[in-house]
Design a protein that fits this description.
The protein is built from twelve helices and eight strands. It is an alpha/beta fold and about 290 residues long. The chain has an eight-stranded parallel β-barrel with strand order 1-2-3-4-5-6-7-8, surrounded by five helices. Strand 3, helix 3 and strand 4 form a beta-alpha-beta unit. Helix 2 packs parallel to helix 3, helix 8 runs antiparallel to helix 10 and helix 10 packs antiparallel against helix 12. The protein starts with a strand and ends in a 5-residue tail after the last helix. The model has no long low-confidence stretch (mean pLDDT about 85). Keywords: Lyase. Belongs to the DapA family.
């Protein structure tokens, strides 16, 4: 499986709200140039819930075309329609994605553990690609260590994304007798360093949309055991993580990328809610030595 920093890539939009595919292609090139380990396409940060199946298909196709084998592309199959997820899985396989990410349906809170495992197994079979699994917080039966141990036995599923911010989470999962080669990934920027230091193969990062180079350096330091230098860098990055995650959608990330000159401002520049403060995000970017 893929090691390192996987960017949960945002999806810039046009004034109509449709995906801005040309700007997505620009971002793919930018991450290739900055050495990002892989790109996750169509995830929640990419506002997949606002896109129809045709838009998600075109987004994936354009990202793969632009990447042209220069960087691994992971297709997020998330959504509450099993049929749409299976269709995206087939497309990901056809277009040459490196892997897929599957999630538990957010609207099916009452699903039993067996039903969820069956759902994951059917999507992994449809994709015929290395598959990462991620369960939302409302699915405690899958997030438990026992549930993850069972998940790891499903054919095709080769990794799990741990979205927990608990310090003990990595310790619990790393104690499991998981199949050889089964990968664990941090799923939240604020706790990613501790989990990678404990032995996770990498992380899926929102913050890497704007600072892939620093996060790759943090990953390298964690893997080589340079803890003193890594602790300093991790502390240095925490304010930026919190500022970028201040709003539960991708607006802070889009605003930062506009300020950095990476994406066009467009007719409707991203606006944070009134409760948020742009100056806080600007200070965090400058503290991380990102020019704005």
């Amino acid at each position: 499986m893929i090691n390192g920093v996987i960017v949960d890539l945002i999806t810039p939009t046009q004034s109509s709200g449709a995906p801005d595919y040309e700007t997505v292609e620009v971002l793919v090139d930018w991450h290739v140039d900055n050495g990002s380990s892989a790109l996750l396409i169509g995830s929640s940060t990419g506002q997949s819930s606002t896109m129809n199946i045709d838009e998600r298909t075109e987004l994936l196709r354009r990202a793969l075309w632009q990447a042209d084998g220069r960087i691994p592309i992971i297709a997020d199959l998330g959504g509450d329609s099993a049929d749409h997820a299976a269709e995206l899985a087939s497309i990901a396989n056809e277009y040459g994605a490196s892997a897929v990410l599957i999630s538990a349906p957010t609207k099916e809170e009452a699903m039993s553990k067996n039903a969820l495992l069956k759902h994951f197994a059917s999507l992994a079979e449809a994709a015929q690609l290395p598959t990462l699994a991620r369960a939302e917080r409302n699915h405690a039966n899958i997030l438990s260590p026992i549930g993850i141990a069972e998940l790891a036995l499903i054919s095709g599923i080769e990794g799990f994304v741990d979205g927990s911010t608990k310090a003990t989470s990595a310790q619990e999962l790393l104690k499991l007798k998981l199949p050889k080669g089964f990968a664990l990934y941090a799923g939240h920027d604020t706790s990613a360093y501790q989990q990678m230091l404990a032995g996770y193969q990498g992380c899926i990062s929102v913050s890497a949309n704007v600072n892939p180079t620093l996060l790759l350096k943090l990953y390298a330091l964690a893997k080589t055991g340079a803890t003193a230098e890594a602790e300093i860098l991790n502390t240095h990055l925490q304010a930026l993580h919190l500022a970028l995650l201040e709003d539960p959608n991708s607006i802070p990330v889009k605003w930062a990328l506009v300020e950095m000159g990476c994406i066009p401002e467009g007719e409707h520049p991203p606006t944070l809610p009134q409760a948020s403060d742009y100056s806080n995000l600007r200070r965090a970017l400058r503290a991380a030595e990102i020019p704005v």
